[in-house]
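Hey,
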Amino acid sequence: MDIVRLNAYAKLNLTLDITGRSGGYHMLDSLAVTVDLFDRIVVKKRRDALVSVAMHGLGSESIPPEENHAQRAGERFVAQFQTTGADITVYKNIPIGAGMGGSSADAAGVLNAMARLYAIRDRAALKQLADETGSDTGYLLEGGFARMQGRGEQVTQFPSCPRLFFLVLVPPHGVSTTECYRLYDTLPQNQDICTQQVLDHLLQGRTAEGAACMRNALFPAACTLNSAVAGAAQALASFSPLGCSMTGSGSAVFALFETRELCDWARSRYRGPCRAMTLASVLPAEAQGAGFWRNPFVLGEEE
């Protein structure tokens, strides 16, 4: 095998509680789910130990190599497992700076693709590499419906959850994660945590009750940094969904509806400046059978 292609899925944080600080880091408790939006990862084996990454789409071409999580993941994989390198191509469709885990998904996708390419089956070692690469990367190595705690490295997977349907709005400009956490520290803190409550509802099939409890502790800070976040959330609430929240540190916000048809209905009536997407939750078993996605930003792409 000289080439591996796979999909790296985006995530939505249904909840995001901040439970304290340790070692200079914020401690989190978050319920997350992967959704059917993905970047395409193509990895080709090299004969030397070099790792090259080519990005396509959504302005990703301008990301410096030293700031590219896919590059970092590939280099760390080669160093850890003493394999030869790889030529990596990432076709972007997950919005950048939206809190949907795009860079972490790319890093996780590279680790999974290189593990398949070089027949590496040590998932514990891959998880450690993922955690060293980014806070969401360890979770996105497997994806699905999971609870993330600590810095995001403590992942509890749940094998099933109700099928969830979302309308996601992505403002034209992102939110800096660093700035969002910094501002959060200066704002009055609301100690109303919700992750356990939402998890209990969803595991019992009470989707409406769980959606009504969703909350993101970073939402006020993100709204202060980017007023479009608040505007998008207000637009979603006007469609009377089961619940609304923000993913990660923004800027994307989402509404949970009973059906995909209701998501499509709300999307057809949205008139704002945000990119609007109808998405559904996707679990690992479903993701493995997903087909090839043809990137709209690249002409002449070959599978």
